[in-house]
Amino acid sequence: MFALIGDADFDQQWLYNRLRQESSQKAKGNVGAIVTFTGLVRDNNVDGNILGIELEHYPGMTEQALTDLVQQAITRFSLTSAGAVHRVGRLYNDEQIVWVGAAAPHRAAAFEAANFLMDMLKQSVPLWKKEFTRDDSRWVDVKASDDKAAMAWLREK
Amino acid sequence: MNVTVKTFAQLREITQEGSFTLTLPDNIVTMGDVITLLKSRSDKWAQALGANADSENTSEEGHENGSENGSKIVGKSAETDAGNNSSVLMARNQQLCDVNTHVESGDELAFFPPVTGG
Fold first, then answer.
1. What's A79's DSSP letter?
2. Which of A61, A64, A129 faces B117 most closely, judged by CB atoms?
3. Which residues of B touch A60 (CB under 8 A)?
4. Choice between B118 and B74, residue whose per-residue pLDDT is larger
5. Topology annotation, domain B2-112
6. What is the pLDDT of residues B21-30, one digit of tens each?
7. Hey, what domains does chain A have and what are their CATH numbers?
8. Mean pLDDT throughout A121-148?
9. CA–CA distance from A81 to each of A11, A59, A71, A115, B90 (Å)?
10. Within its chain, how far is the Cα of B117 from the centroid?
11. According to the model, what pLDDT value does residue B18 have?
């Protein structure tokens, strides 16, 4: 498993290969599905167009919280491996910001786990987005729908 | 005893204190006590942590009244506060905690708004 935080862009192929290799070491011949998700920076918010976002995080706790989350997903969905990557710092529109991947014997668990990772990441990993325009910036509010999605997983537990 | 206090995002901007050492008097036992102490530190801290929040008055039921002008202090499982962007989360030694959590000398205590990654 892996959980990475950093300001550099990431290479999906490298992450996919790492996930596949780890899975195969753990359960050779029994890895039937790999689901990956990549999030990009949108160029608009509720108030209009933005130039990008600035991501603040809590060094140390962010890495630990993301590691704990990936570990939870592996246990909960019996994954052969999983990984998550989140970028911090200043990101411009259309840039890659987040990646999660889940590998399992069957696709249902892999899809579910990828959803779980994204929903819970928005609830439990200390990262904060600030959108910026040419001459202004504002902190992003928590979306009620994001909270609801995470709560649904917590209730189902 | 001494602890390190850290703030992030809006709380860091409001308090203008991202990280500092705080000396706690002997009567400070829980995170709730620390919040009461911090609120008396300056108007900025009172604003950041909410005028109406106190250590005795938080639970999973949530408290909706009187929160218009200040932040609400919530524990990690205060689900009735979902969507309330003026809430404050807290961590002790980089683990989410709540107002009832006990603090010890050398702890790293952090206060921050609900997270918005992803």
1. -
2. A129
3. 94
4. B118
5. Ubiquitin-like (UB roll) (3.10.20)
6. 999 999 999 9
7. 2-156 (3.90.1170.40)
8. 91
9. 18, 25, 9, 15, 31
10. 20
11. 97
Domain edges within chain B: 2-112
- The residue in chain A having the minimum alpha-carbon distance to the alpha carbon of residue B118 is A122
* pLDDT digit string, tens, across residues A104-115: 999 999 999 999
As for the ipTM of the complex, it is 0.89
Task: Tell me: pLDDT of A74 over 90.
Answer: yes
- In angstroms, the CA A127 to CA A84 distance is 14
Pair of tokens at residue B112: 């921050």
Phi and psi at residue A119, to the nearest 5°: -60, -45
What is residue B58's DSSP assignment? Answer: -
A and B: number of Cβ contacts within 8 A? 78
Residue A122 is given by DSSP the state: H
CA–CA gap between residue B66 and residue B51 (Å, rounded): 9
Asked if pLDDT for residue B41 goes beyond 90, the answer is: yes
- Within 8 A of A123 by CB-CB distance, chain B residues are 115
- The answer to whether B9 contacts A128, with C-beta atoms less than 8 Å apart, is yes
User: What are the residues whose beta carbons fall under 8 Å from the beta carbon of B5, sequence distance 6 or more?
Assistant: B17, B19, B20, B21, B22, B34, B38, B109, B110, B111
Of B8, B82, B91, the CB nearest to A148: B82
Residue B54 has pLDDT above 60, yes or no: no
